[in-house]
């Protein structure tokens, strides 16, 4: 597999140049820039105290989805759903292992075991597009097995089972990522390789996943960059200066990738998506008006920035408040490429093509989260737990969150109460019952794993 990475690009397309030329005008390329733990309010167009000019410019020229959400409140499940278009009941990765976090004496249920890697049978978007002649690259955090190359990516750089880097400043010690000068920001190095891939494959079609380790802990940045943010945000604590500098490294990446697409003549044939895998970590960011943060099913844990720019997005800048999930990306890319998943592939997302072009809408649907695991509290905000085993559902403006330990249920009107402070469950018991029954039916249909009572000796 590694030998494939060394084959010069010219040889890849030898004897197939005519076919490649014919594809250029009909098949779009895709770039997905995925930040790690970047909160919904961590970009300045959605309220951050630090500026993200490249991300804001992308939004100003594209489509900003204000109600985009991950498929899980932490890294692994949302990444698995994004890459496969399926849900956690299908691939079995519903949290970052182990599922039994925190002190045993504080747990009232025994959570089911979670998977930690995609199986060979799980099809990624790279494998689904390969038959249409797409060349693919995964650069950065993988967290779903030992190597993205085992799941169909032609180029694999810096990704393995690790869920976080030990260092954001070189040396990094990541697979197939050549070291640079000590202190070089990791996001800059990953972007170097992304740009090289764009240059080598501009004729297309191609799929590029640039999956940053930033802004996941450890929150590190060069001292010179931290000093800049200390001057810009003098009233913020020092850890927020470090965080702002790390966010800035992601913002620089967005600007550089966009420029590379434009300079290599493929911007008008490429759909660029910028998003994050889950909400922001509360110990470094407050997620703006949203309740909670990473590891919770409240909006602060699952709502993410999501911007679409380039091919297929029409000519009008728009801000859309339609609820979408990351699992919608696979069916979107397949439709734009005029292909489909192999028969029997259990796609759970829906294509966003109509929304992107402005020529259609999404059918009414429920968005569901299933998280039968424990995540211990990392701050004083939430006691022992960020979450105990829970599930949630969104239907239009309504959202219900239920907790399996004690059957507590909360109901919120997200249009009137984005901060989820006004629980309406007692005022609208029939709506709560209906949504709870929908979740129960979904669990039965999908054979979703559930926590069980603790066996008493």
Description of the structure:
With 457 residues, the protein is α/β, with parallel strands linked by helices. The chain has one domain: 3-Layer(aba) Sandwich (Alkaline Phosphatase, subunit A). Helix content is 29%, strand content 17%. The chain is built from 14 helices and 18 strands. The strands form 5 sheets. An 8-stranded mixed beta sheet has the order 6-5-7-1-8-9-2-10. A hairpin with an 8-residue loop joins β13 and β14. The termini are far apart. The N terminus is likely disordered.
List strands and helices in order, with pairings.
Blueprint: H1 2-6, H2 9-12, H3 17-24, E1 29-35, H4 53-61, E2 63-65, E3 68-69, H5 75-84, H6 88-91, E4 109-110, H7 125-130, E5 135-140, E6 155-157, H8 186-200, E7 206-211, H9 223-232, H10 238-263, E8 270-276, H11 299-302, E9 306-310, E10 318-320, E11 324-325, H12 329-336, H13 353-357, E12 366-371, E13 375-376, E14 385-387, E15 390-395, E16 398-403, E17 409-413, H14 429-446, E18 452-453
């Amino acid at each position: 597999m590694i030998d494939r990475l060394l084959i010069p690009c010219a040889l890849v397309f030898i004897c197939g140049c005519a076919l490649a030329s014919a594809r250029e005008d009909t098949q779009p390329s895709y770039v997905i820039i995925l930040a790690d733990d970047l909160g919904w309010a961590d970009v300045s167009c959605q309220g951050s105290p630090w500026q993200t000019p490249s991300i804001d410019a992308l939004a100003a020229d594209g489509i900003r989805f204000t109600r985009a959400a991950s498929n899980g409140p932490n890294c692994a499940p949302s990444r698995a759903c994004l890459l496969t278009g399926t849900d956690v009941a299908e691939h079995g990765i519903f949290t970052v292992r182990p599922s039994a976090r925190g002190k045993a004496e504080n747990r009232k249920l025994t959570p089911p075991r979670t998977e930690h890697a995609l199986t060979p049978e799980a099809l990624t978007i790279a494998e689904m597009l390969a038959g249409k002649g797409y060349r693919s690259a995964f650069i950065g955090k993988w967290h779903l097995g030992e190597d993205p190359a085992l799941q169909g990516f032609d180029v694999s750089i810096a990704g393995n089972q690790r869920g976080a880097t030990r260092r954001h400043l070189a040396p990094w010690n990541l697979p197939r990522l050549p070291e640079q000068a000590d202190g070089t920001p990791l996001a800059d190095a990953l972007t170097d390789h992304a740009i090289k891939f764009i240059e080598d494959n501009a004729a297309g079609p191609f799929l590029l996943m640039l999956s940053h380790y930033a802004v996941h802990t450890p929150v590190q940045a060069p001292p010179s960059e931290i000093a800049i943010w200390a001057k810009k945000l003098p009233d913020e604590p020092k850890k927020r200066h470090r965080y702002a500098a790390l966010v800035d490294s992601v913002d620089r990446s967005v600007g550089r990738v966009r420029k590379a697409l434009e300079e290599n003549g493929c911007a008008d044939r490429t759909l660029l998506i910028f998003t994050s895998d889950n909400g922001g970590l509360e110990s470094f960011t407050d997620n703006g008006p949203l309740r909670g943060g990473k590891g919770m099913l409240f909006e602060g844990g699952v709502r993410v920035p999501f911007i679409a720019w380039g091919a297929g997005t029409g000519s009008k800048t728009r801000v859309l408040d339609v609820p979408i999930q990351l699992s919608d990306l696979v069916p979107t890319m397949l439709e734009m490429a005029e292909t489909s998943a192999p028969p029997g592939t259990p796609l759970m997302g829906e294509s966003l093509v109509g929304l992107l072009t402005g020529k259609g809408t999404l059918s009414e649907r429920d968005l569901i989260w299933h998280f039968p695991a424990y995540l211990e509290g990392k701050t004083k905000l939430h006691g022992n737990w960020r979450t105990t085993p829970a599930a949630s559902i969104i239907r239009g403006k309504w959202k219900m969150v239920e907790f399996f330990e004690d059957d507590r249920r909360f109901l919120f009107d997200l249009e009137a109460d984005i901060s989820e402070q006004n629980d309406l469950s007692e005022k609208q018991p029939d709506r709560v019952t209906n949504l709870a029954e929908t979740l129960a039916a979904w669990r039965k249909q999908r054979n979703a794993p559930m926590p069980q009572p603790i066996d008493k000796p």
